[in-house]
């Protein structure tokens, strides 16, 4: 990232995670600026990361080469409109991490600027995220690399050629953690109903989920093969999986992801 300055409009959890991830990968805190209307939040950020902080969004926009828009979608329009003049003049790379805010929306509010739209997920808060990225026309290869390094500080990054593909990313990895949390929650409840103490049930389920993920990540074979390896014919796992299959588990997952994508498209529209 050479010596470019990186700014954040909004100092919430995701912005903090990105800043912390970049610093952990060797980016000097002096190269990072963050703005937020909350003085208390800025004081916490300054103490935690030693970055520059200000309540003035324009001050950040006037200083940096890369501007990460990390405010809630419902206030994005107002935040961008106030920055339009300085953005059109300075042409920093704009990186938006707001769900449902399209490139068309951003250009309407900001004018012409190089824009990368991203869809990170909440595991980015612990540097284990998965982020889909789309570069609008006019973004250079160097700017794409810069965006990859910023979002890559909190997990894996995946580029897509069409913006509409981010709706599928939202449905799979953006909303995906909630799907796994629901399974964990349900499995904990099932363990307790079978007589296990709640604290033990929780630890067993979470460790099993973590272990299964690690095994899938590090294995040379896919989840389908791993499932087959743990499923002995006529055994306990086969009995459980039979219940899932009979209930249409796979079809329910397909329907759930399709519903999430449809809602993402509606919000973007």
From TrEMBL:
This is Pyrroline-5-carboxylate reductase. Belongs to the pyrroline-5-carboxylate reductase family. The gene is proC. Its EC number is 1.5.1.2. Pfam families: F420_oxidored, P5CR_dimer. It comes from Alloalcanivorax gelatiniphagus. GO terms for molecular function: pyrroline-5-carboxylate reductase activity. The keyword Lyase does not apply. Residues 163-267 form the Pyrroline-5-carboxylate reductase dimerisation domain. It is found in: Cytoplasm. Pathway: Amino-acid biosynthesis; L-proline biosynthesis; L-proline from L-glutamate 5-semialdehyde: step 1/1. Catalyzes the reduction of 1-pyrroline-5-carboxylate (PCA) to L-proline.
């Amino acid at each position: 990232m050479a010596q470019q300055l990186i700014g954040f409009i909004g100092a919430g959890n995701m912005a903090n995670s990105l800043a912390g991830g970049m610093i952990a990968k060797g980016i000097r805190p002096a190269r990072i600026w963050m703005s937020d209307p909350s003085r208390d939040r800025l004081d916490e950020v300054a103490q935690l990361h030693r970055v520059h902080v200000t309540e003035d969004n324009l001050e950040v926009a006037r200083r940096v080469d890369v501007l990460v828009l990390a405010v809630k979608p419902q206030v994005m329009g107002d935040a961008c409109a106030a920055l339009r003049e300085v953005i059109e003049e300075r042409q920093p790379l704009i990186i938006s991490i707001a769900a449902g805010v399209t490139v068309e929306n951003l250009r309407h509010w900001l004018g012409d600027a190089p824009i990368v739209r991203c869809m990170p997920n909440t595991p980015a808060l612990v540097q284990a995220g998965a982020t889909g990225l789309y570069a609008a026309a006019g973004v250079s290869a160097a700017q794409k690399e810069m965006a990859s390094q910023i979002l890559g500080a909190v997990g894996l990054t995946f580029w897509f050629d069409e913006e509409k593909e981010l709706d599928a990313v939202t449905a799979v990895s953006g909303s995906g953690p909630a799907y796994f949390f629901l399974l964990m929650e349900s499995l904990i409840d099932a363990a307790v109903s079978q007589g296990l103490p709640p604290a033990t049930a929780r630890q067993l389920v979470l460790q099993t989920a973590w272990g299964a993920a690690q095994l899938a990540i590090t294995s040379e074979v896919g989840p389908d093969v791993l499932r087959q390896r743990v499923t002995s014919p006529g055994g306990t796992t086969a009995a459980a999986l039979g219940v899932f299959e009979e209930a249409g588990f796979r079809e329910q997952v397909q329907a759930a992801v399709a519903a999430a994508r449809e809602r993402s498209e509606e919000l973007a529209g």
